[in-house]
UniProtKB/TrEMBL annotation:
InterPro entries: Uncharacterised_pept_Zn_put. The lineage of its organism: Bacteria, Bacillati, Actinomycetota, Actinomycetes, Pseudonocardiales. It is a single-pass membrane protein. It comes from Pseudonocardia sulfidoxydans NBRC 16205. This is Aminopeptidase. Keywords: Aminopeptidase, Hydrolase, Membrane, Protease, Signal, Transmembrane, Transmembrane helix. Residues 1-23 form the signal peptide.
Amino acid sequence: MLRARRGTTTVALVVALVVGVLAAACTGPAPSPAGTSSSTGNPATAGVAATVAPVDPTLPGRTTDDVARLTVDALQTYWRTALPGRLGTPWRDVTTIAPVHVDDPSAPQPPCAAKAADLRGNAFYCPAADAVVWDADVLLPQLRERFGPAGVVVVLAHEFGHAVQTRIGVDEAQRADPAAHPTILLEAMSDCYAGAVIRHLVDATATGGPVDLPMRAAERDAALRALVTFRDPLGTLAADTTAHGNAFDRLSAVEDGYDSGPTACAGMTTAGRDFTQRRFGSAADRARNGDLPLDRLVPAVSGDAKAWFEGLVAARGIAGYSAPDPRPAPPCADAGPQGPVAYCAADGGVVTDLAALGALQQRSGDFAGATLLVSRYALAARAGATLSATGYDAGRSAVCLAGAWTARLVDPTGGFGLSPGDLDEAVAVLLDEDWAETDAVGTVDPADNGFERLGHYRRGFDGGPGACGI
Ligand SMILES: [Zn+2]
């Protein structure tokens, strides 16, 4: 999106439809008498490119059913300790574990659904039967094929998160006070619990413990990519009864569980959590679900970024800093590999590779390119503020400042505003590429990956530029 700064034009930065859809909706089947709680959400179609090879060298010879069984065992084991230890509630193993063969006409009736075929594309937790149920023919094999075992892990961990909620009384609390427990909050809690489980597997793997499901940085990023495919369709509002969250909000919840554990998940409230989904700015905004041409995108974003970063530098007491206009040429000889946009320390410029930006836009949407562009303006501003534009910390600061710049566009007071999908596009480029974190000579901390980049971005998004070292 992006509503234009001046005039009446409304333009849209939009998502390219790049991901193969994972089967159908995942909102759970028709409600059982007591209702089915949850599900992972709807696989949507944008944002994250399907360019990442499945990460599955670790479980050779295992079928997807094997992976699901190992995952369930790991989840039951984890919660047997974590629920009493962290939340003071005894864990009861989930009563019914139900892989459903949706392609088998003779399959028995699954829990909380009329027939097996109704489960196609679904995974859910049904509190009435205390059952975790999933499509074993389509959904999980596709997740495993695209994302490796981590795709299976994150989806089942999310559903177990709903079982945790049932055990600690969240279902009753929701019945007593529905307004304080909207769907999107309960879904965020489940994503958060999934993050806690991922952390457990990462730690166990790192310490050489006996883990059936090794989880390293690559698998962790694969889990995030898998969950992102279940983000809400564009235009969903946080208040919608089916809302599960956009990619940014869902991964933020995972990160909170990863960093702070199950106690933080259980303590989530609507008051303490900002959900970033907003409606389209206008009918035209909605209708223009197409890409904003680069010849409009680049000047629009850079114009806004220039003014914002000039203000930041001035606030540090440095007068006279003037941010550059972007230029497609000449290239910068010493910039190193920074991706489609480079900050040129030699002359203080920002250099765009329009062909590469166009390719990125096709893959991940226009706001992916906007995020990179702003991260380069961040390096330029650091140099203008006499801070280093090289080194790992400069790269982290650039990602952080891109988050800080973006946050003010969620509820803008005028000029620009985000449209649905923009944050998902930022998430896509941060997960898929390290470009936003490169410094002025194209280097980046090799230990950082998608998970860390999202963390840096979110630090600025939540904390503002002051959290970014400028
Ligand atoms: Zn759910």
